[in-house]
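Moderator note: this is an archived Q&A kept for reference. The question asked for a predicted structure of one protein chain; the sequence and the answer are reproduced below.
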Amino acid sequence: MLTQIEGIHHVTSMARDAQATDRFFTGTLGLRRVKKTVNFDAPDVYHLYYANGTGQPGTVMTYFPFPDIGRGVRGAGEVGTTAFAVPEGALDFWTRRLEEQGVGGLAREDRFGERRLRFDGINGDGFALVEVADDPRAPWDGAGIGGDVAIRGFHSASLTLRDGGATQALLELMGYRRGAGEGGIVRMVREGSNGAGVIDLESRPEAPAARQGAGSVHHIAFAVADDAAHRTVREKLMEEGFQVTPVIDRDYFNAIYFRAPGGVLFEIATNPPGFARDEAMAHLGEALKLPTQHEHLRAALEKTLPEIGA
């Protein structure tokens, strides 16, 4: 069993409208935009990162906004719900706020004894807020939302699978243990995590295959402390027969990717160097930052990429 995985590092999804996505995460949800860069493989498309004030691993939601992308089709083989942690007692505030801002899909529920508020993102993404006591992660304090109710970071992600057995075995290899189960959901828990240590496996044998598009999670990334831990995890996964990519430098972390048995794309990402490697912490997410190989495109990209909020 691996001991290096610390929990979720980030979740990356796809969207259609960069401006609307930015308004939703910085305005409605009150997260900080910590990086404004571009897709390594499609530099005419943004890669936008939203998190707490420091861009701490375990708090980072990222987006590829493709202007012409179709709507995703929900189903098996994807991250169905991304859940954020909020303080105990905060759901009344969030219910009112999301209702006032016209957010759809609002529904209160309990899962494993936790109070949750489900809601839809602007592209039909599946989200939830979960009340958590004494979460030590500091919220972003620049959005006008009080610290007594603000989002702390990720609580969990729910994977929708036709059969969760093989993915459960993979997560156990990655250091998770099986927790409670209810209603076709098995909870996997990483003890001593970075605060984002829960993965729920939702088995839906009848579900159609998911089709990616706007509102779909592209991949879920898990955190490790450094490059040495990264190498250890990669070697073990390859020993177990997973087809793992070489290490890829993503500027703000190093990454490897592989497909989990249920079809979800997994990434393992290093915590360093972090988002302050190329701009001061006080100014994260303000300037357009480009990968070195795309710097020669700056003049054209600054003209064609849509303007988003300051």
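Archived answer notes: Residues 228 and 270 are 9 Å apart (CA to CA).
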